[in-house]
Specification:
globular; binds 2-acetamido-2-deoxy-beta-D-glucopyranose; glycosyltransferase; disordered N terminus; cell wall biogenesis/degradation; Cellulose synthase-like protein E1; 8-stranded mixed sheet; Spore Coat Polysaccharide Biosynthesis Protein SpsA, Chain A; 630 residues
Length: 630
């Protein structure tokens, strides 16, 4: 470790005792020289017995000497590289509703990230359960037992993907894998766990026996409802604990369950609030330098993703500028022709790459790796490095109970009052400097924008094998509601203090400003679309021409623009891996969205910013809240 308190991502150490080795090596060298001198001097005269044997021996020794010199190159200057100093990575998994997001789905995501190919002592996983569901806690407890078998199994047989469900689905016949016996055993174990959890979920409560399995369940004694309960915090696996070992005796990643305190009279700010509570709590527990966040419906499909992301952060040229690395997402639930156009194909394959060229993609709330300092409001300056400050383990010398008690306070609903955290749920006001931004239905996008405005860059990474796979909305209403939220949120950003149009002026590149505006303009573009879809057809009935006759020369630009634009759009869609029918569906849905989602999004945004409606809530098919069902 350098005297200035940081260590590089990996460390290069010169081997100890080099001087001694070199002295030793020189002594051998001298010895060899002497041997050669002896051979040369004492060659038998011509005609004497054994002259040629002697010369042969001399040649052989000469050869060996040369060879020896070469071997010295392999020993003279040895360095050893240690990966020990990889930064600590903390993974936040967010869930909000055990009905929409069944506990089995949540723990599959958790297990897939627990099994990342990364040193387990450097990995911690936090599950933020905004519903504070006892069943989810129970599922996580079961998953922590299963992980003791699952992690070694994955690492031993290099299993991909590491979400058990996806893995077992991908293998239809146990005889297809080499390790048939182990496969059958682990699958059985998984199914037992699934049955147990399934039964509990169906009943909606736990039996006394299940509750007696862990002292953590006592925290539900004071639980009155999903919107009214104490902070629930439980460190299920403490990575430092010498007893927390997998079946092969290796350490396990730390695993923490957190449900922030909720009281009816306090806003809890949904996902952003949960993330901010997590950020405060994790500082006391693991305090890693990288925060990785995934939604609970999005499992990791590639165990190497952490290392992939670190490549960008540790890059010698540009690494110090990178605030976050956003991965693309894949969807397992879309049909071949994407009937609701919900895979965001062109966005992922084309548009985000365009943003990346202008300074970095948006932060889309999942599948993202953050430099922790940037989430805590750090500005980019010359002192930022691609090296990682070594933080002392915050846990040292504190018992687990004390640690839990200390951390719990940080997730209470009054903690944020009069602090720099988050900020109230209203627009046009000063967003604070710390944590994720509140008051916007797309808290992720506005958070990413504010980070970029502080001088940071972001990186978009879209590997061939999708690193994260989630579920897309599978019904038309879900699709439309999701787009209403996005359109409304992005439009609100335009009106907010953090507007990409003026706040960002001069802070981010002009191209990136326009890129953000593109998303912000979704909502208002409903009017032009509605006008175009209604008025010309009415006038057609009246017989008033609004477009040039096909015989007129003015017809050419219209025909050209329309046909060229559509051909390009089709080509782009096909190039992104879509189908012709998929493109057609996308066009269809595009019209639906523009005439409904965007219109409602626009109206709601205006009402909200005029102060008529203040329920700034988050709706997603993934993270939803009680009010959503309304
Ligand atoms: C997910 O990972 C598996 C295994 O590596 C791979 O075969 C599959 O193509 C990946 N899925 C996607 C959508 O990339
Ligand atoms: C989680 C989820 O919605 N799964 C659905 C994905 O789509 C297939 C059909 O395409 C359904 O069978 C799954 O239930």
């Amino acid at each position: 470790m350098g005297s200035d308190g940081y260590v590089p991502l990996f460390e290069t150490k010169k081997v100890k005792g080099r001087v001694i080795y070199r002295l030793f090596s020189v002594s051998i060298f001298v010895g060899i020289r002497l041997i050669l001198v002896y051979r040369f001097k004492c060659i038998p005269r011509e005609g004497e017995d054994g002259r040629w044997v002697w010369i042969g021996l001399f040649a052989a020794e000469l050869w060996f000497s040369l060879f020896w010199v070469c071997t010295q190159a392999l020993r003279w200057n040895r360095v050893y590289r240690y990966e020990d100093d990889l930064p600590k990575v903390d993974i936040f998994v967010c869930t909000a509703d055990p009905m929409i997001e069944p506990p089995m789905m949540v723990i599959n995501t958790v297990l897939s990230v627990l099994a990342y190919d990364y040193p387990t002592q450097k990995l911690s996983v936090y599950l933020s359960d905004d519903a504070g569901s006892e069943i989810t806690f129970y599922a996580l407890l079961e998953a922590s037992h299963f992980a003791k078998e699952w992690i070694p199994y994955c690492k031993k047989f290099r299993v991909e993907p590491r979400s058990p469900e996806a893995y077992f689905l991908s293998i239809s016949d146990p005889n297809d894998v080499k390790e048939t016996k182990e496969f059958v055993a682990i699958k059985k174990l998984y199914e037992d766990m699934e049955n147990q959890i399934g039964r509990a979920a169906k009943l909606g409560r736990l039996s006394g026996e299940q509750q007696s399995k862990h002292k953590g369940f006592s925290q539900w004694d004071s639980y009155s409802s999903i919107r009214d309960h104490d902070t629930i915090l439980q460190i299920l696996v403490d990575g430092r604990d010498p007893n927390a070992r997998d079946i092969e005796g290796r350490s396990l990643p730390t695993l923490v369950y957190l449900a922030q305190e909720k009281r009816p009279q306090h806003p809890h700010n949904f996902k952003a609030g949960a993330m901010n509570a997590l950020i405060r709590v994790y500082e006391k527990i693991s305090n890693g330098q990288i925060i990785h966040n995934v939604d609970c419906d999005m499992y990791s499909n590639d165990s190497q993703s952490v290392r992939d992301a670190l490549c960008f952060f540790m890059d010698e040229e540009k690494g110090q500028e990178v605030a976050f690395v956003q991965f693309s997402e894949g969807f397992k639930n879309v049909t071949k022709n994407e009937i609701y156009g919900s895979s965001f194909r062109v966005g992922m394959e084309v548009e985000f790459h365009g943003l990346d060229g202008n300074g970095g993609p948006l932060y889309i709330g999942t599948g993202c790796f953050h430099r922790r300092d940037t989430l805590c409001g750090r500005k980019f300056d010359k002192e930022c490095t691609n090296r990682w400050y070594m933080k002392n383990d915050p846990r040292s010398e504190v018992s687990l109970q004390e640690l839990e008690a200390k951390s719990k306070v940080l997730a209470s609903c009054t903690y944020e009052e009069n602090t720099q955290w988050g900020k109230e749920a209203s627009l046009f006001l000063t967003f604070s400097n710390t944590g994720l931004k509140y008051g916007c239905p797309v808290e992720d996008v506005i958070t990413g924008l504010s980070i970029q405005c502080k001088g940071w860059k972001s990186v978009y990474f879209n590997p061939e094998t999708k690193a994260f796979i989630g579920v897309a909305p599978i019904t038309l209403p879900q699709t439309l509601v999701q787009h209403k939220r996005w359109a409304e949120g992005n439009f609100l950003i335009l009106l907010s203090k953090y507007s990409p149009a003026w706040y960002a002026l001069g802070k981010i590149s002009f191209g990136l400003q326009l890129g953000y505006c593109h998303y912000s303009f979704w909502a208002p573009s409903c009017f032009a679309t509605l006008y175009f879809s209604i008025v010309p057809s009415l006038y057609l009935l009246k017989g008033t021409p609004l477009f040039p006759q096909s015989s007129s020369l003015w017809f050419v630009p219209f025909a050209y623009v329309i046909s060229a634009k559509y051909s390009y759009s089709l080509a782009e869609f096909l190039w992104s891996g879509g189908t012709i029918l998929g493109w057609w569906n996308e066009q269809r849905i595009w019209l639906y969205k523009r005439t409904s989602s965007y219109l409602f999004g626009f109206i709601d945004a205006i009402l909200k910013s005029a102060g008529f409606s203040d329920q700034a809530f988050v709706i997603t098919a993934k993270v939803a809240d009680e009010d959503v069902s309304e």
